[in-house]
Amino acid sequence: MNRREFIAVSGPGAMLVGAASVSGRVLAASVPEAASMAEVTTQPPLVPKTGPDYNPVVTLNGWTLPWRVTADGWKEFHLVAEPVEREIAPGMTAHLWGYNGQSPGPTIEAVEGDKIRIFVTNKLPEHTTVHWHGMILPSGMDGVGGLTQPTIKPGETFAYEYVLTKSGTFMYHPHADETFQMAMGMMGSFVVHPKDPAFMRVDRDFIFLTAAYDIDPGAYVPKVATMTDFNIWVWNSRAFPGIDPLVVAKGDRVRVRMGNLSMTNHPIHMHGYDFEVTGTDGGWVKESARWPEVSIDLPVGAMRAFEFKADNPGDWAIHCHKAHHTMNAMGHSVRTYIGVDQREVAKRVGQLIPGYMPMGSTGGAAMVEMGMPGPENTLPMMTGTGPFGSVEMGGMFSVVKVREGLARGDYKDPGWYQHPAGTVAYKVQDGAAPAAQTGTAAPDMNPARIGAGKGGRGPTLEVRARQRTLGMQGMATSDPMPAATPTTSSMPGTPMQHDMSTMGRQR
Ligand SMILES: [Cu+2]
User: Fold this and answer.
1) For residue 265, how far is its CA from the centre of ligand 1 (angstroms)?
2) Do residues 72 and 114 make contact, with C-beta atoms less than 8 angstroms apart?
3) What is the 213 CA–ligand 1 centroid distance (Å)?
4) 490 has pLDDT over 60
5) What domains are defined for the chain?
């Protein structure tokens, strides 16, 4: 049975409802149809048509689970735990376990005070449960197999019922064979909006979960016993360049919510802004308890929400700052050849293996430039193309695209940022004085400002571009400059300084 047939029989007509496992209160009523999603692109937010007003979240490369409200006021959802096929990025699909056609499962959204009933149907080949991470609820609804409930056997449907006592950022995942099941991609986000629509209101609200898979190049199923040496680092089971951009209108107040169900922490770093953590899976953070950051450590088994005012237009990288987490399938036993002259070796090996290319003598970028073909169903280690060339990233990397004049609710990719004249780093011609830039980002030529702080914006930065000598001697920057190569520091009186404050936003 392929996945399409599988979904076809998982419709309401074929729903398997174990009478013993569904609460007596709902026996008479039907179990709501389980929606399923085939798309891997970010779906538009699900704006509530009834009930309290709130600004729905946007799940990166995901969607929100539709619900229905019963006559007696229960908000009902239906999750189906099942095997899924998830495209990690174009060129690689993984065979995972998830919910309702995707991994992660759909985001559940509801409102503080809601009475919710979540049906969980198990279409996995083994038992499962669902734990509602961070929720304050009755012990018997906590979803810990064996401890608070019997596990949900294959074919059974269970119902979870509780009242959402507080707003915030939560997630759900199995608490039965959870090591293997989470390693297979079983997880989802759960957002509870405040009852007061004005409380913590933002214009754009994004959410994603971090995870990691160990999938050998050419394989489809993650190695579920791997503890630390993963090779595919994902947000919502997508890796760069498969992660959609976070599209934002200039002037918006933006929240990014993120959770971590991988085996290690992720320092999530965003360029172009400073911001504050305004919420965790424990609740909202009081204003007096917040501090500015540009990287937020996302611990294992935790969620963080950070907020900023999008006043600085541009294409701003957002990524995990662990460098190996912004790479795709990489053999971690690759040897280091930086500084090693492989030319003689290459000649000899080339006699045995025509076309043999030694790599790594000058670093890793050559591997990207050569565009070496990989095996089927895997992703290049460093990849992605931007307007200026290869981005040389993978894994947990995306772009926050802040643009002027985007309509409310417009999340379409606006393309690459059109930089105003004079605001892009530029190549200095050999032997020539730096070309005068126009616009707001002209280099500051005032020597009095060398190294001096200015208006609390931090010290000016003196940039001395030096030509590296490459080759047998390696990449040490202390190598003597070749006499024929003029350097900026050899031009008396014109050290090239860029006052970084002129590059930044105007507050
Ligand atoms: Cu990371």
Assistant:
1) 6
2) no
3) 12
4) no
5) 3-201 (2.60.40.420), 425-507 (no CATH)
